[in-house]
Predict the 3D structure of the following.
Amino acid sequence: MVRTSVLKRFTAVAVMALVAVTAAACGSDDSSTAGDGGNGGGGGGTDIGVILPDATTSPRWEANDKPSLSKAFDDAGVSYDIQNAQGSVDTFGQLCDQMIGEGVKVLMIVNLDQESGKACLDKATAAGVQSIDYDRLTPGGGASFYVSFDNVAVGGLMGTGLIAALDAAGKTKANIVYVNGAATDNNASLFKQGYEEALADKIDSGDYTLVGDQSGEWDATKAGDVFEQMYTDNGGKIDGAVVANDTMAGGVIARLKAAGSAGQVPVTGQDASVEGLQNILMGYQAGTVYKNTDLEADAAAKLAIALINGDDTSSLANGSVTDPDTNKDVPSALAVPVWVTLDNIQTVFDDGFAAYADVCTDDVKAACDKAGITE
């Protein structure tokens, strides 16, 4: 197993796990998906359950992860149920209890916070249910595997992306700000570690000055509010913003539009959401970190099936991440993120991650045509 050296420096690790849910699990039609491939896991009960965290902090959970996971499980021929906790710790706990009680074989979760995630994984361990942390590691949770992207690398792409955008604008000296993710999400600290490392030389040399550093809590309105305050505090003299995902970038861009500065201040993002891609095409956003959820879902499905069948999993993990609470290495399957700008935005469409009909609407259509985006 190859140890990912960058990840070994983690001081905090965020948690996401996919949890096995039965076909009878509670949830509305728009927050759950059940499927049965017919040949996975033997008799009775759902093979794999998934608990996604919410539908608001990022559109990726419902728009990308859910269909990617469904396809991976369908292709593998295993039964599954995907539920969404809709941002509620209580709902998360109820789904966890129900899935374990109904005998899921593998529990995969994306936690809302460390405490509730760990409580769920502890129950799974006590019941003899194997578990996978999906996208976010749960510190102290003891999941069998962790499936994600290299989250420090994700942050690094935002940092180098901002440098490239400022260089392209001819700005060798710049005031920059950070709009970070939520403190309750340990991934946010890993992203920040990545962009701090990428920007360290520029800041240490005095080329860049960090004039603001606030959390937007993964919320567009809150991100807009904290950015507006930093913008006001600095008399409008902000040259670039590292914003940790597309949802928050949208809130920042709205404030820049109100100030008449949209397109003049490079803004980063993450998730290659419809809004993020539209903002790139319109010239409001410098780029976004594209994380192809098909890669994550495929890795998670292969690991889950191997766990169900009792197969060797050593070839399925390409690295390890240290749990900061236990100091133990968690076998990990880590996918590679990609920085997407106007120059390579077609890739997201070619992969089927984004649809022309969703992105190239109304006034964005002309920008799509100019960029050569094809259906």
